[in-house]
């Protein structure tokens, strides 16, 4: 009885070993392939000029520059750049959005422009606006964000804030 | 005392062998649970029988031995048919076979005895697609240049046509370099002769008669085949017991005068039968019939009686020994199940009839009806589980069709003899025309067929149920009270289960069509999308079938390159219940806005914009549509169009988990990203649809699973 058991088990194991010999480590061929989800690649773009919220906008790979502008806040006066339909790929890291009065397109002016600080005439800007900005710069130093710009412009903020941009070097997020 | 199971050695051996084949097949997909479960159950049974000192331990040991044999043989067979030729530019010289040549002509040829330009012999046949307009004849020795790939017949869907015809390679973009005439082989000459005679003397039904005599349906027109199928008599076109039985009876009648011993008579009869099988390409149904006939002779000679079930099991064993993967062929399953139904269910019905003492003629009619009904009952659930339609009037129509086709076969067989005998073909034509008219009339009825969904397990339950009804399983009264209701419950449950829509589990299903176009269906929650060129009918049908398994409230279609969309594919898709259709390349040549009607909204998607919330689809343009990115929750799948521009898509910063390309591209393998292509290449991280079949990409938590089922 015991011998029969042993013979049967031995035969079973022997045949199993024979059948499994020659197995390759890449067998089975149609086994499921598992992988971890890669964290999404993100791109950060500095958006300034004729937008609601100047600053850094981070989007995932595959989003277009239009999404970037929408996150920054498009104004009625904003001139959407031509590359808005292109996917964000890291090639453009600073986006200055110009403005339009309905008839013409104008370039935004750097609020920390030396001409403003020295109270010299700037094309397209009334003197009182230049004076307001120069006073602020003289008292508090360079503009670091749109909030400071709007504070400096006071009652003229709504009408003029979108005509200026804060350069990326000077930018600091408002408190 | 009666044994619980009236088993036979051949039955245990066949069941064990089949279990071994399935265990190996599941192992191909990394699923060792089936094999492990079979091994544990058999080992536990063996140990139980030894402990209890039951004599049945030998039976279990036979089962184990054959299960191991089935497992090992499947493995060896698989390794023998697997070769990894991937996209090799080569010239192949080989002989054109008559596969697919007699009848409907196409530009697909099958070459055998092939050598490549290095003189290396290629095992098996090469399927060549010639697109330069050259026409080759059977027997020609042709040199064709193109791109060589291995075919992989064993994957999720086993391609038994390739296995049966020993097709091992495929040559794409074939251009004929040289041709010179060659000779036909003996079987090709016979088939050509049969084709020529039927074509000359049977004006209306030459294709049907050719199929009846040789089993080759290439000459059969689609209308006739559909009529036969819908009427439930398509089985008559498969060379099987009807045909082999006639030839054996003619030979038996001729030899009966010699009063030979059964085994001697068998040895003489088997030679022409094997020759007939050779002409029919050794199809599983003809081999089944011949094996059963030989088993019948042997058992009558040795035991003075024959057992149909044992003969059937031996036939199954021999067929599966020739090719273990025939078990996955629907024709093989239906052929064997039909005879299984007769061997189990027919005798109880016949005994019932005998007890009733009916009129002789009525009994003959009932006999014929019973045989037909037994076949249908045994094959019903297998057919339904494989998406087939069940013919309502098959049982009744067989009463007329079987005798008529038998007469036609006999007339056609003798009509092959030379000289005046050919005119018998006219009479055969009349009989076949009558059968075809009946089949056409029945098939035109709207209720001629019905289909229902069921799980594959129901086929196993039916086999066990028939085994019990046939008297091979002896149960006590209590056992019968439990067994039959449980089986019926399992059958009903398997039907209900098949109709319950599954909960979507964030997956995408990728199908590459025969034109190398890709179709993707993604399902998240109750929303589904389909992104495709809508140029390949079978790919789109398969995709819609996949979506049909889920409970989906909203379906959105995205037509990628509408210039490639085919009208008949769009016609098939427009009733799928899609709420919205987006045309991604802004070209609406097929006037899709008119085709889909008022209930579906058709839009042109703006370039480089994203549509959807849970499932997002973004079209990417660089002048024209170059890619479509599908976001499945956290997983990106990017369909890339155009082989020349495909590498530039990597620069768009999409960072997809999978890129679906039209052809393998080296820059993707250098970037170590996973690519799916129509054909397997030697690049790492590349998966070819010709090797892996269809793909399922599922997201479970933070893991992405790529599976090939």
How would you describe this protein?
- The complex is a heterodimer of chains A (175) and B (709).
- With 175 residues, chain A is of the alpha/beta class.
- Chain A has two domains: 63 residues; 68 residues.
- Chain A has six helices and eight strands.
- In chain A, the strands form three sheets. Chain A has a three-stranded mixed sheet, covered by helices on one side. In chain A, strands 5-6 form a two-stranded antiparallel ribbon. In chain A, strands 7-8 form a two-stranded parallel sheet.
- In chain A, a hairpin with a 4-residue loop joins strand 5 and strand 6.
- The longest helix of chain A has 19 residues.
- Chain A is rod-shaped.
- The termini of chain A are far apart.
- With 709 residues, chain B is an alpha/beta fold.
- In chain B, helix 13 packs antiparallel against helix 16.
- Chain B contains 22 helices and 23 strands.
- Among the domains of chain B are: 73 residues, no CATH class; 97 residues, OB fold (Dihydrolipoamide Acetyltransferase, E2P); 88 residues, no CATH class; 201 residues, Metallo-beta-lactamase, Chain A.
- The model of chain B has no long low-confidence stretch (mean pLDDT 87).
- In chain B, the strands form four sheets. An eight-stranded mixed sheet of chain B has the order 14-13-12-11-10-9-22-23, covered by helices on one side.
- In chain B, a hairpin with a 3-residue loop joins strand 15 and strand 16.
- Chains A and B meet through helix 1 and strand 1 of A and helix 2, helix 3, strand 16 and strand 23 of B.
- Strand 1 of chain A pairs antiparallel with strand 23 of chain B, so a sheet runs across the interface.
Quick summary of this structure?
The complex is a heterodimer of chains A (175) and B (709). Chain A contains six helices and eight strands, in the order αβββαββββααααβ.
Which key features would you list for this structure?
heterodimer; A: 175 residues; alpha/beta; 2 domains; 3-stranded mixed beta sheet; two-stranded antiparallel ribbon; 6 helices; 8 strands; 33% helix; rod-shaped; B: 709 residues; OB fold (Dihydrolipoamide Acetyltransferase, E2P); 7-stranded mixed beta sheet; 47% helix
